[in-house]
Design goal:
- There is one protein chain.
- This protein is mainly α and 598 residues long.
- It is built from 23 helices and six strands.
- A two-stranded parallel ribbon has the order 1-4.
- Helix 4 (94-113) runs antiparallel to helix 7.
- It starts with a helix and ends with a strand.
- Bound molecules: seleno-captopril (SLC) and zinc ion (ZN).
- Zinc ion binds next to helix 13.
Length: 598
Amino acid sequence: SLEDEEIRAKAYMKLLNDKIAVRNNRETIAAWSYASNITEENLQEQLQVSKEAAKEAKEDWLETIKFNWKSFSDYDLRRQFEKLSILGRSALPEEKFLKLEKIISDMQTIYSTAKICDYKNKTKCDLSLEPEITDILATSRDPEELEHVWIEWRRKTAPAKDLFKEYVKYSNEAAVLNNFTSTTEYWLHDYESSTFVQEVEDIWEQLKPLYLQLHAYIRTKLRERYGSIVSKKGPIPAHLLGNMWAQSWGNVADFTLPHPSTKNADITSEMIKQGYDANKMFKMAEQFFVSLNLTKMTPQFWERSIFVKPDDGRELICHASAWDFYDQTDFRIKQCTSVNFEDFTTAHHEMGHIEYYLQYRHQPVTYRRGANDGFHEAVGDVMSLSVSSTKHLKRIGLIDSNMPDNDALDLNTLFMIGLDKIAFLPFGYLMDRWRWGIFDGNTTSDDYNCEWWHYRTTIQGVEPPVDRSEKDFDAASKYHIVADVPYLRYFVSFVIQFQFHRAACELAGEYDPNDPAKPLHKCDIYQSTKAGEAIAKMLQMGSSRPWPDAMEVLTGQRKMDASGLLEYFRPLHKWLEVENKKNGAFIGWETTEKKCTK
Ligand SMILES: C=C(C[SeH])C(=O)N1CCC[C@H]1C(=O)O
Ligand SMILES: [Zn+2]
């Protein structure tokens, strides 16, 4: 009978979850070995383990789909079967599965091992993205040098283009084998909502006015600094914004601050002066989580993580990442940390992933994921919003505690956070818009690059420093494109993290919508176990329920909305409108000349 089958299915699901945990552990160990030491031997080992895991997963899947799970009465059991009824990439025939795995590894290797020559010293040709090229983009104020590294990095990563075309083909084949129309639908399935793309578009439209104000102000300041290479009304040249992808503008804060005289002690130089190192940065991050009564890092975390780029000559993937080894004790971060505030923020971001792993480690493996992928990216950033507050920076001594707590300092701090959070939004939105167009067949490989610049120009309002063509493949200059990592999760995170922050701040008594003395941007939830407990309750759910249920546990809301972010930046939004009017700044940009020819 169906009842008997459901009882049998429960026992089956318990055993299957334990089996998947062991399989995932083996795969993750092999993936870690390769990612932390790129050698042919480690690649072959990883491909071998993936092959075996895919074969076993397919056998399990054939058993799983035999159950009449859609008719089961138990919601939880139905939900676990529903998730496991989607096999994923292992649905590909073995040799295509392996080809796809190798293509993604090879694209990542091109990116992770790419080196360029220095602008000044033409014989020095061992510059990696981290830390050398990243530091140049952050600190150089020589537009020629910035243009050189911008062009050279793209020249060295563009060779991934042919592999990317193959990747699109195999990825779509896998999606179709899973009954999705393309990879786009396969990626969006995580959000469990047929209107999710529309919801994201609506939110971007609500946030656009704030972005346009910041964009106009920054263009004015860049034109003051660099002259006519920055036009009055056109898009901003992408190489001048302090970041390889112009996705966060925090590195141009020093000459764009609203109140430059209020020397916002440069936090990074303060960290260096106080002898910060990577280990101290991660210990301090852990201390913040523990102050909320969240779970501390495990012994394995401290023994096995990589916090500093190894100097033994090995090649490795430096892009920061957080790893769950599915044995409820082994969790690791791999980050090539530099001592600066940006990497201090990233340390909190990565530890947010680890905290989520810790909070849901008792769940069956099928539920050990974020409520949606945006949740996973938001956890650490919620902590960083408190850590970045003037109040907290004074608490930990990175802002001189007898700096007067005046509006100038307050606005400068809010502005610096805005240079990361507001500037990011169009980039977070366009990255997958461009890829969806390719997966859906609207953008062919003849148009990859000029379509990329179409989105970059029309949505983000940036343009290349020199003309581009279809001989270039600029999207491959970004890790997530070559590493098969969806990106919508970051746009979602940058929106919902302010909803989470607002709820946590209210619980901490740090924010009161009716008390102008307690605005959202001044909140620091440090040591609030009340806020911590509510956050923990949301995280413990993993993906066991649809994400609105998880969001409701912390915020009482069931919808993603822009109100948290807009409320947080309201004072800055107002200041930018007044300042832009004063400067007669043109709001938006005219996209006249084509900067990309077929
Ligand atoms: C830090 C990580 C690892 Se999940 C990252 O990729 N982030 C964090 C912010 C956006 C995105 C990026 O660097 O592009
Ligand atoms: Zn992340």
